[in-house]
Write a structure and sequence with these properties.
Blueprint lengths: L14 H17 L9 H4 L2 E2 L7 E7 L12 H7 L7 E3 L5 E3 L2 E7 L4 E6 L13 H13 L6 H4 L2 E5 L5 E6 L35 E5 L5 E6 L12 E7 L4 H7 L5 E2 L1 H14 L10 E15 L9 H9 L3 H8 L4 E3 L23 H10 L3 E3 L2 E6 L2 E4 L1 E7 L3 H17 L2 E7 L1 H9 L5 E7 L7 H4 L10 H12 L2 H18 L3 E12 L4 E2 L15 E2 L2 E2 L5
Parallel strand pairs: 2-11, 18-19, 18-20
Antiparallel strand pairs: 1-24, 3-4, 5-6, 6-8, 7-8, 9-10, 10-11, 12-21, 13-20, 13-21, 14-21, 15-16, 16-17, 22-23
Length: 548
Amino acid sequence: MKNKIKNITKPIKYLLILTVIFSLIASVCGCSDSADGEKSTEESESIELSPAAGGSIGIFSYNPDTLCPIFSNVWANIQMLNPVFDSLIEVGDHMDAQPCLAESWYSSDGGKIWTVYLRRGVHWHDGGDFTADDVIFTIDQIRYADSSPFKACVQNIASISSDDGYTLNIELTKGSANFINMLYFPIIKRSDAGIDKSTYKPVGTGAFSFHDENEGTLYRLRRNDDWWGGKVYLSSIDVHLLPEKSAEEYMFSSGGIDIASSAVAQEYKSREDEDGKDSDVSSDVKILSYETSDYTFLGMNHNNRNLAIQTVRRAISLAIGRASIVDEVLGGFGVAANAPINPSWSVCDNDVDRFTDYDTQKAAALLSENGWVLENGVYQKNEDGAVYRLEFSLLVNEDNVTRTQIAENIAGTLSEFGIKLNVIKKSYADYEAAVSGGNYDLFVGGYRITPDLDLSIILGEGNVFNFKDDEISELLSEIRTAEQSQQKALYGKLQNLFNEKIPVAGLYFEKGAIITGERIKGKPAPNMYNIYNGAENIYVETTVGGTD
């Protein structure tokens, strides 16, 4: 049965795209379960929901820049290779490390020395044994490459070695209490010849092995019956290489693929909200959201005379309608947050006030107590013979539709309150130059906070906000080397300081999502680093008594 989404009418730009899509759909119909044998008519008539082994699902990617996952710069390509490769650890919604190829670990010397114990008995898809040499090789490949999407993960490593083949001894340049979270990248097999990105053939330790069976238009990931993680239900996952991003929605709606990314999930959600109960969408089509570390904020230039005043910054933060931004601009795919600590993270102290309530009465009281008076719709203050008005420019990248909408939302809300904002839209290059050069009052921006939860890019020395605070700097240093048992209390203290001082006005953490079709059963568990996490737990409707 096809996944049905109502009113999908956007045209595909080129006839070539349509041709490729139809051929891909035809290939799905023609090759499904071909390796597993034909099922009899009697079997086909006796179908029930059962978590039995067998069957195939479809996912998507695009023409890869390379099939080596540590060097690919194509997000969809990295994702489709995730079922093939394992990492040392996995990082989920709570932003804490879970064992994978690494079974356990501990640190010493203020998080500068790490000992990591590797899983034994793991085999590569070609039959070789997984050892510490493979991990060291992978890390060295990333460290010394000209570019890799995982380069930041290993840049703090000063040395790495192993004495017994299954224990990693890692020394860092500087202590990091959450360094283990950075080891989420895929581990590739050691090769004496090094890595040729153009000819690399994926060989992993994951739940599925890689096969190129259709001259580059279709990849097949076959079940690895020797996987160390246990039972895998699906016989295979078919990876359809789409001609461009617009084709993903068509492939999902027509049943060509069974899992699609956030863009399609958000499009579906917006239609569901618009159509309500009349939405022509199967109840078995599901949106599975996940937390991210993508933090969006209203940046403030602390060199601006008025923005250097803590009371003004607090009033601005209180007068922002974060809930309306999350609902109206993001369609619910976000969680309001002031401090750069996602409420879902294990280090977050949820007893601390999140400071996200829209409270113009409190904002007005703060300004009034500090001598600001509302005149002609704008707060102003007379001081030393000069009149200061709370009027600022708000910079935004005009190429980013979401942030432009956010800027207009904030400008409307604050101007109505009495803080006048003039939205300035610039190209990305001019926007970046203005922010990095400090030539702005306010700007809508965002950072992806790294898995080690290092907040120095926002609060540390050299930040683009010209923010300096000794108390916060000392706390960041303490967090960096503290024991795990102390982390939550320290981050809670940081949340309180952030809410008091408002270095920036945090807006929200974005939520990602996948949408799954009617055939997907089981427990997929997508996260921001691996949307196919839990692929081994997926099953499809199978014929009772049928062959695998």
